[in-house]
């Protein structure tokens, strides 16, 4: 018997808008090819970064989404008040840049 497990990433603001929510720090990407994306990095990941870091899925815009990989050190840096710039995965022959910092209201 073979079992297939399907894992679907869900942003902290919900799968329809991963760029919002009170339990995360949201960020919007640079504009490329006339569109932007957003991500929502969970506060729990900032407070206690996974040893291997984590990859987050952006919002869908212009018919696609990107992945954003953050290392444990980058997550810790964001939590300590630093600003981290990271490039997304390449989708549709382009990438976006995110400038991520801790949400001041958290």
Secondary-structure topology with pairs:
Elements: E1 24-28, E2 38-42, H1 43-47, E3 54-57, E4 67-70, H2 72-79, E5 84-87, E6 97-100
Antiparallel strand pairs: 1-2, 3-4, 5-6
Give structural notes.
By secondary structure, the chain is α+β, with helices and mostly antiparallel strands. It has one domain. It is built from 2 helices and 6 strands, in the order ββαββαββ. The chain has a two-stranded antiparallel sheet. Strands 3-4 form a two-stranded antiparallel sheet.
Strand percentage lies at 15-25%
Uncertain segments are 1-19
Averaged pLDDT, please?
83
Note the run of SSEs as H and E. Answer: EEHEEHEE
Oligomer: single chain
Helix content, binned percent: 10-25%
Shape: globular
Number of domains: 1
Question: How would you describe this structure in keywords?
Answer:
about 110 residues; alpha+beta; two-stranded antiparallel ribbon; two-stranded antiparallel sheet; 2 helices; about 10% helix; disordered N terminus
Give a brief description.
With 106 residues, this protein is an alpha+beta fold.
């Amino acid at each position: 018997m073979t079992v297939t497990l399907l894992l679907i990433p869900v942003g902290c603001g919900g799968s329809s808008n991963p760029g919002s929510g009170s339990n995360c720090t949201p960020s919007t990407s640079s504009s490329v090819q006339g569109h932007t994306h957003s991500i929502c990095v969970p506060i729990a990941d900032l407070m206690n970064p996974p040893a291997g870091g984590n990859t987050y899925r952006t919002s869908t815009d212009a018919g696609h989404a990107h992945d954003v990989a953050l290392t444990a050190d980058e997550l810790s840096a964001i939590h300590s008040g630093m600003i981290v710039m990271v490039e997304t995965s390449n989708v549709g022959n382009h990438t976006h840049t995110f400038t991520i910092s801790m949400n001041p209201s958290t």
